[in-house]
């Protein structure tokens, strides 16, 4: 049973939450992939993403546990961001969110697509949920769940 959670719309005031979460969960992977951590750029992206009307904050009770950004396109569901603070990983939240997206994609008869850094262990998470590698780029795996 996943830890109970809810989603709320993100606001531009959530920019620091976006930055903190991405910094905690992705900085080591970016550096391991040979990239650099450009704090100014990451903060600017956090402001943009937090203001995106498709962005959601994942709540466990009143606690902000993660972020979700899904773009519903005519021919696909694009899972842009799914990040959970380490304390909330492995609690079934991510699986429940992806499962709901899979049901939506099946109903719409469209694939779910995403990209994951090659060094990120999240690739195994998505593979367990039925995703496969569609294409391999220099730093990313482009993955798909086909309905």
Number of helices: 4
Distance between the termini: 24 Å
In the CATH hierarchy, the architecture is 3-Layer(aba) Sandwich
Largest sheet: 7 strands, mixed
Run of helices and strands? EHHEEEHEHEE
Helical content band: 25-40%
- Spans where pLDDT lies below 50 across 5 or more residues: none
Cα shape: globular
Structural class: alpha+beta
CATH topology: Aminopeptidase
Characterization of this structure:
- By secondary structure, this protein is of the alpha+beta class.
- It has a single domain (6-145), classed as Gcn5-related N-acetyltransferase (GNAT) (Aminopeptidase).
- The protein has four helices and seven strands; from the N terminus they run βααβββαβαββ.
- It has a seven-stranded mixed beta sheet, sandwiched between helices.
- Helix 1 crosses helix 2 (39-50).
List keywords for this structure.
147 residues, alpha+beta, Aminopeptidase, seven-stranded mixed beta sheet, globular
Write the layout of secondary structure elements.
Elements: E1 6-9, H1 15-32, H2 39-50, E2 55-60, E3 63-73, E4 76-84, H3 93-108, E5 112-117, H4 122-128, E6 132-136, E7 140-145
Parallel strand pairs: 4-5
Antiparallel strand pairs: 1-2, 2-3, 3-4, 5-7, 6-7
Helix pairs in contact: 1-2
């Amino acid at each position: 049973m996943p830890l109970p959670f809810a989603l709320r719309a993100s606001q531009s005031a959530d920019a620091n939450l976006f930055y903190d979460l991405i910094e905690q969960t992705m900085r080591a992977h970016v550096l391991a992939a040979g990239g650099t951590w450009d704090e100014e750029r990451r903060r600017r992206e956090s402001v943009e993403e937090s203001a995106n009307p498709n962005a959601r904050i994942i709540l466990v009770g009143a606690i902000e546990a993660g972020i979700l950004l899904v773009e519903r396109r005519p021919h696909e569901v694009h899972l842009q961001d799914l990040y959970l603070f380490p304390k909330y990983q492995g609690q079934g939240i991510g699986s429940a969110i992806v499962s709901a997206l899979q049901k939506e994609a099946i109903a719409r008869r469209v694939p779910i697509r995403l990209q994951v850094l090659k060094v990120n262990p999240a690739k195994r998470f998505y593979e367990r949920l039925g995703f496969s590698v569609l294409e391999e780029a220099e730093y990313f795996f482009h993955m798909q769940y086909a309905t």
